[in-house]
Write a structure and sequence with these properties.
322 residues; alpha/beta; Rossmann fold; four-stranded parallel β-sheet
Length: 322
């Protein structure tokens, strides 16, 4: 089912929703964040939560009941913690929506509704998961409270996949330069703000730490001046994701400081990839994450090539019980 139809169906059973929880692990948890951020920024009445699945399972919010919607997410639909969290949410009476690439997966079988997304076809397909979750958040807000910029959001959804493919079409030269410059870095810090906060987090923990075994740390650049900026020095490696939207001032302030002390900084700016020009300005900030995630994927692929370390290589994951 499509997000609009799913929320229409839920509203018939649940005329009033009090809580919406977004639940997943690793990259899937991060890809839920733009939806969570949108709903939290725009809803006046709905409680919004964003949980890693195992904590949701063991420390479940008391508001997970028949007045709650729970959105669970896993690419292959087999992440044990997420499957268990989805099942528990159903047992507690919540309406559960699973977002996955696998129709017959355990996650799909432990939800009331399932949204299937692509992955392999191209870079845009890899962002269908994140985009569908944002669609769900928009529908929840619009159908339960109303949303003044609903039409602009629909226009943006109609354009975003083309914007993604256009963006990745010209970044290969800069991605190759990044790979050469950063291939021997002992640590790489990644930061951003707003809807893109967990894009930085996911690149740090998944693409760098998991897939490249490179030490990394990530933080919200609003917190940069409240601790992390003390490690800034000449040639210390950073990646800064710039947002087009309300939190751009935070990103710019961090960038000014990095440049002031000559940190080794790679800047990826949503504005350079059409956010704000090809996406309606009123809703542009919510689409930075999709484009920047796709561009970062190209950067990670090039880093893997120069380091002779495939993105699929693992030391522990899928090989040990843990």
């Amino acid at each position: 089912m499509e997000p609009k139809q799913i929320i229409q169906s839920i509203k018939e059973k649940m005329p009033c929703v009090k809580s919406v929880y977004f639940v997943g692990c690793g990259a899937s948890k991060a890809e839920l964040y733009p939806g969570k951020y949108f709903l939290e920024m725009n809803s006046k009445n709905i409680r919004v939560g964003h949980y890693t699945a195992n904590e949701f399972l063991h420390a479940t919010p008391v508001a997970v009941d028949e007045t709650a919607i729970v959105v669970t997410c896993s690419l292959g639909g087999t992440t044990p913690e997420t499957v268990a969290a989805s099942k528990k949410a159903m047992e507690l009476g919540a309406q559960v929506i699973a977002v996955t690439h696998a129709a017959e997966s355990p996650l799909a079988k432990n939800a009331h509704y399932v949204i299937l997304h692509g992955f392999e076809k191209n870079y845009a397909a890899k962002l269908e998961k994140m985009t569908n979750v944002l669609m769900l958040a928009v529908e929840i807000l619009n159908q339960y409270e109303g949303y003044a910029h609903y039409d602009e959001m629909q226009e943006a959804f109609g354009r975003i996949y083309d914007v993604i493919e256009k963006s990745v079409s010209f970044v290969l030269p800069s991605a190759k330069c990044f790979a050469e410059d950063y291939k021997d870095a002992p640590v790489i810090y990644v930061m951003s703000s707003g809807a893109t906060q967990e894009v930085a987090y996911a690149f740090s923990i998944c693409l760098l730490m998991e897939m490249q075994w490179v030490n990394s740390g990530s933080f919200h650049d609003g917190e940069f001046f409240h601790g992390p900026f003390e490690i800034v020095d000449k040639d210390v490696p950073f990646i800064l994701l710039m947002n087009e939207g309300r939190t751009r001032a935070l990103d710019s302030r961090a960038l000014d400081f990095l440049n002031r002390f000559q940190a080794k900084t790679t800047v990826l700016d949503g504005k350079d990839f059409g956010i704000g020009s090809e996406v309606p300005a009123a809703v542009a900030e919510y689409f930075n994450p999709m484009v920047l995630t796709a561009v970062l994927r190209v950067y990670a692929e090039q880093l893997a090539i120069v380091r002779c370390h495939p993105l699929t290589q693992r030391r522990y994951m899928w090989k040990l019980e843990y």
